[in-house]
Design a protein that fits this description.
By secondary structure, this protein is α+β, with helices and mostly antiparallel strands. Helix content is 50%, strand content 18%.
């Protein structure tokens, strides 16, 4: 029986029901489903959320035949098998006891009676030399391609919100909401393939053009054809794009292009000008974040490391400290979007164009400058540049004695704010003038401590940072930031399994954090650092979370607070919110040293959402940045184990034991955060147990 008098396509999840062809598709691939089963599914999907009685279904599908309910149950079971209903967290058809069935997924209806046209960004891909590779090693080639689709291509499409149109044996067509999303996806996949050791190489063709939506839901037209033809002549491992695509992405991504001239493509009437992405020019932000960074909806700025023009190279830390304080002061303005220090400092010692910085960090303004310290005098110069145009908006020089150092910082900050955010109230500028200490000696030692503190993962550097922060506290017993950073050193030791967790260590970490809060209750960095220590080391998750929340209220540009908050949401059992907070941290600090920790955090969040493939993918990105990052190694082993990739999970577990020979399933909880839900810890233990971690 016809499922509907009107021809239409129904979409839900990765599936499409096409009434004209009476077929069910998943990501463009037709699935086996009988005629009666199709009628049942279509009838239910047309009425999402409604409970359809068994008699109503039977009367619809078998109007002139008497059948038993057992036949209906058999066909519903076949539908569930085709939909993989209940697997991977999916749920489409619910049984309502004593009443019937209900389709519980949202459905999009597309009328097929008229042809629809639209502008679309199309990506065409295939494996270069796939047939020849199959002839040489059929099983290995097939297995490797399936692995790439599962672990790299599908997660990348998902991150960039791409829709798979159709697949072939060794290729695919996908549609994206924007040219930037399509290009970002292609770059991410090619960059990871180039560094991942796979023997297979993909080719990409991208085009922006008109497409027609046919009655079967497929896309047709020159927009598709041009993308496919460009892919066919692209270099292995390369990306070839049309001029229309180039005009949309050029200058918005840090990718170099080579003009290939006008090309005559098969089955395309007019020549198409094409551009090839040059090998090796894909930027770190695209590789790591998977998409180009758009400008925020408020003035955005990055402060680059100031040059140390002093004759003494030991004064480098002084120049860095100057920038640290300016970033901190600027970030107190809620009207500004300020890139975190960790990302800004990735440009230290590099000759880089301001426009490139603007593209890579996604900011409109860049502040650069220099510091010259001689005897008891300091000279600070600064210039503010519009990263989009390269125009100099403001430049000035500030001179003073060492005793005026905080006043000089205030002058620089106020001048920058006055240049890019004139609407900021004077009262807010006054509130931003915060002096961390009156002791210049304590401040100098504190800056030395910061230089060591930021050498994350270095045990000796962390120990030296703690010593220096304690020395600064001795000189100024009311130096709140020194207390907070000293307490944070204990958290770093906990994260890296360096701490012994003795009662004395816990008491000292708690004392430092509490004293910092007493002295700096309105300082966002103090609240964040102390809250992190109290949550991770002292295991007081409730207090730690409330402190980090308050830090974000005071300073929504503090990337470190968003990172801490992401982990705390995981420990509290809210992984969806954790992903949102990690994304904010990554946007504010797209290049910082904390990136590996953020990627690992996102992997953990997906793990607790039962998205084990995505968890493994994010863990792999984290381990590309730091192969010895223990949190990333742990979640990689657990995710791959539960996903069924036992070989990869076991290899990772062996690496984990090399990094931490004392780690066992039984003592795992001592290196993890304070998970509030026992079932989360149990699942983590189960994953590592399956990976081969000793009991």
């Amino acid at each position: 029986m016809s499922s509907s008098g009107v021809h239409r396509t129904l979409r839900f999840g990765p599936f499409e029901l096409l009434s004209t062809k009476r077929v069910l598709r998943r990501n463009g691939v037709t699935l086996s489903l009988g005629s009666r089963a199709f009628d049942i599914l279509f009838y239910l999907a047309e009425r999402p959320g409604k409970i359809i009685g068994k008699k109503e279904l039977i009367d619809h599908v078998w109007p002139d035949v008497t059948v038993e309910e057992g036949s209906l149950r058999v066909h519903v079971a076949a539908i569930r098998k085709a939909l993989r209903d209940g697997q991977f967290g999916n749920r489409y058809i619910a049984s309502v006891k004593g009443r019937g069935y209900s389709f519980v997924e949202s459905v999009v209806r597309l009328e097929d009676s008229t042809e629809r046209r639209r502008l679309a960004a199309i990506l065409a891909a295939d494996v270069a030399g796939y047939s020849a590779s199959l002839q040489r090693a059929e099983e290995a080639t097939y297995a490797e391609f399936e692995r790439l689709k599962r672990e790299l291509i599908a997660p990348s499409l998902s991150r960039h919100e791409g829709r798979l149109i159709k697949t072939t044996g060794d290729g695919a067509l996908a549609e994206f909401a924007s040219p930037l999303a399509a290009m970002g996806c292609a770059v991410e996949i090619q960059d990871r393939l180039a560094s991942g050791g796979s023997a297979l190489r993909l080719r990409f063709g991208l085009n922006l053009g008109d497409v027609s939506v046919g009655q079967d839901g497929d896309l047709y037209g020159d927009g598709i054809t041009i993308a496919v033809r460009l892919e066919e002549i692209s270099d292995p491992g390369g990306i070839l794009i049309s001029e229309k695509m180039y005009s949309e992405v050029e200058g918005k991504l840090d990718v170099g292009f080579e003009d290939r001239g006008e090309l005559q493509l098969n089955n395309v009437s007019k020549p198409v000008r094409a551009y090839a992405a040059r090998a090796g020019t894909h930027s770190a932000p695209i590789d790591r974040l998977g998409a180009a960074l758009s400008l925020p909806d408020k003035p955005s700025i990055a402060v680059l490391p100031f040059q140390n023009l002093s004759s003494d190279p030991e004064q480098e830390f002084f120049a860095d400290g100057m920038v640290e304080e300016i970033i901190t002061a600027l970030s107190r303005f809620k009207a500004l979007f300020v890139i975190a220090r960790n990302s800004s400092f990735t440009y230290k010692g590099r000759a880089v164009e301001v426009k490139q910085v603007g593209r890579e960090l996604g900011v409109r303004y860049v502040l650069e400058g220099s510091v010259r310290k001689a005897a008891n005098r300091v000279r600070v110069t600064g210039q503010l540049i519009d990263a989009a145009t390269g125009a100099h908006l403001w430049a000035d020089r500030f001179d003073g004695g060492l005793g005026d150092i905080f006043d000089l910082q205030d002058q620089v900050t106020e001048s920058v704010v006055g240049a890019i955010a004139p609407a900021v109230e004077t009262a807010e500028i006054e509130r931003a003038k915060y002096k961390p200490t009156e002791s210049l000696d304590a401040y100098a030692i504190y800056l030395r401590g910061l230089a060591k503190f930021y050498q994350y993962g270095n045990r000796l550097a962390t120990a030296e940072a703690l010593r220096l922060f304690n020395s600064a506290i001795e000189l100024d017993p009311e130096f709140a930031l020194a207390y907070s950073h000293a307490s944070h050193c204990y958290a770093q030791a906990k994260t890296n399994s360096w701490s012994s967790d003795t009662a004395d260590e816990l008491a000292e970490a708690s004392r430092l954090a509490q004293r910092a809060l007493e002295l700096g209750k309105d300082d966002a960095w103090v609240l964040c650092g102390s809250g992190w220590t109290l949550a991770l080391v002292v295991r007081d998750l409730g207090v730690g979370t409330s402190l980090v929340d308050r830090a974000l209220m005071l300073n929504s540009s503090l990337a470190e607070a968003w990172r801490c908050s992401g982990w705390m949401r995981i420990w509290l059992g809210d992984p969806k919110l954790a992903i949102e907070h990690f994304a904010r941290a990554m946007r504010l600090s797209p290049l910082g040293r904390w990136l590996v920790d953020i990627q690992s955090g996102i992997a953990h969040a997906h793990f607790f959402l039962d998205r084990y493939d995505e968890a493994a993918s994010w863990a792999a990105m984290a381990l590309q940045n730091n192969p010895d990052f223990q949190a990333g190694v742990r979640i990689s082993a657990a995710s791959n184990a539960i996903a069924g990739r036992t070989g990869e999970a076991h290899e990772t577990a062996v690496r984990l034991q090399r990094l931490n020979s004392a780690l066992r399933v039984s003592n795992l909880k001592h290196v993890l955060g304070p998970y509030r839900r026992a079932e989360d810890l149990t699942r983590y233990e189960e994953g590592l147990r399956k990976a081969g971690l000793p009991e």
